[in-house]
Write a structure and sequence with these properties.
Protein name: Acyl-CoA dehydrogenase family protein
InterPro entries: Acyl-CoA_Oxase/DH_mid-dom, Acyl-CoA_Oxase/DH_mid-dom_sf, AcylCo_DH-like_C, AcylCo_DH/oxidase_C, AcylCoA_DH/ox_N, AcylCoA_DH/ox_N_sf, AcylCoA_DH/oxidase_NM_dom_sf, Mycobact_Acyl-CoA_DH
Shape: globular
Organism: Gordonia phosphorivorans
Oligomer: single chain
Family: Belongs to the acyl-CoA dehydrogenase family.
Cofactor: FAD
CATH class of the largest domain: Mainly Alpha
Length: 424
């Protein structure tokens, strides 16, 4: 079945996919074909070279072109599928959203540039924002004309969100913000940031925090890219020195920041994780092909690790589907389990890839027997191959988005009811 066999143009944003799907026996097959056919017809011409671009460790690649691709998706009605129709979305069911993310990944389509806006902030504003905030900001996310960064982590409060020290004081109709955020992905390319700041002087931990929407293009904001070991710089440190945001750019009431921030983090573990797993599967298949080609698969230990990696993928998918179906004890616990599963799996795949490649993977592409310029790794001057980049970038998988230690504490304390870890 192809998309053309349906009398309804599924890429038309005026079509409410959620309502339509409930009355169509073969809805999943039609929707799958529609997504697959559209991607095949549109990932051509100027967009053909974007296939596979912009993934983890390569966010710098073809950013302007991928932005145009995202806007092309928006014009065709393929952004914000799961949002309610009244907020510019498509009203798509969870099943349809899963199909879209999986087909998108199978097509090796380029990494999206608007993930933070579409998957995190947008749903948060729909849940907690005022009608005025929704009217102001949601259209810019739908059509990808405004990009967002996340201002959570700080030098002294990485995975410990309750330890943030950035302050905001309401003065003459504006929030005046001072402090520093770090590991702020794509802040140098974004127009706005959603920022957790302490708005109650003398408050501690999760008390007295607020969730603010802050424009980044203003004199009080300084953005400095941080170079990673991969040589790329997709995240930044951001300094607020009397930066301002209008008084009404607070989501929820003053002091509700912890609740809103935790709500946003639940959206982070949404259906897009299944698309992420399709990308993981592609990486694994490519690694298996390499192991066959270079003979590494004849090593019993390598072969065993490749089999375990495949089993790990199956477990990840089963857990994701169980979570999306609502078969969970705790939303917080489910999010933490999912993060532990994929982060550890992907980190281990990076190490496995290095072992499959062998000694050549330790050398830079410019390394020769006569010119040994790459004996000392210089990320500014060495272009990594896909396996070297995978090894280096996945070192961070178990840290960003909440470290392994934090995830295990959440499971222990909030799900299992164990005593809280001693804190200074």
């Amino acid at each position: 079945m192809t998309a053309q066999s349906s009398s309804i143009n599924l890429a038309d944003r005026s079509v409410d996919l959620g309502k339509w799907a409930q009355n169509t026996p073969d809805a999943a097959a039609v929707f799958t074909a529609a997504v697959r056919d559209w991607l095949a017809e549109n990932l051509t011409g100027e967009f053909a070279s974007l296939r596979g671009r912009g993934g983890p460790g390569s966010e710098h690649e073809f950013f302007a072109e991928r932005l145009e691709w995202d806007r092309h998706l928006a014009a065709a009605g393929w952004t914000c599928l799961g949002w309610p129709v009244e907020h510019g979305g498509r009203g798509a069911t969870i099943a349809q959203r899963i199909i879209f993310h999986q087909e998108y990944a199978r097509a090796n389509a380029p990494a999206r540039v608007n993930h933070l806006g579409e998957e995190l902030l947008g749903p948060t504003l729909i849940e907690y924002g005022t009608p005025e905030q929704q009217k102001r900001f949601l259209p810019g996310i739908v059509d990808v004309t405004e990009l967002w960064a996340q201002g959570y982590s700080e030098p002294g409060a990485g995975s410990d969100l309750a330890g943030v020290a950035t302050s905001a004081v309401l003065d003459d109709g504006r929030w005046v913000i001072n402090g520093q955020k770090i590991w702020t992905s794509l802040a140098h390319l974004s127009q706005w940031a959603f920022v957790i700041a302490r708005t109650e002087k003398g408050s501690t931990r999760h008390h007295g925090l607020s969730f603010l929407l802050v424009p980044l293009d203003q004199p009080g904001v300084t953005i400095r890219p941080i170079q990673q070991i991969t040589g790329t710089s997709e995240f930044n440190e951001v300094f607020f020195d009397d930066a301002v945001a209008d008084a009404d750019l607070i989501v929820g009431a003053p002091g509700d920041g912890w609740k809103v921030a935790m709500g946003l983090l639940q959206f982070e573990r949404g259906v897009s994780t299944l698309g992420q797993q399709v990308g993981f599967a592609r990486e694994l298949e490519n690694l298996v092909d390499l192991a066959k080609a270079n003979g590494a698969i004849d090593d019993p230990e390598i072969a065993s690790r490749l089999r375990r990696a495949r089993i790990g993928l199956i477990v990840m998918e089963a857990n994701a589907r169980r979570t999306l179906a609502g078969d969970i004890v705790s939303e917080a616990g489910a999010a933490s389990v999912a993060k532990l599963l994929w982060a550890n799996w992907h980190r281990d795949l990076g190490q496995l890839a290095t072992d499959v490649v062998g000694a050549p993977g330790l050398l830079g592409p410019d390394h020769t027997s006569e010119g040994r310029a790459n004996d000392i790794y210089d990320p500014e001057n060495v272009e990594l191959d896909e396996w070297q980049r995978l090894l280096l970038f996945t070192r961070a998988d178990t840290i960003y988005g909440g470290s392994n230690e934090v995830q295990r504490n959440i499971i222990a304390e909030r799900v299992l009811g164990l005593p809280r870890e001693a804190r200074p």
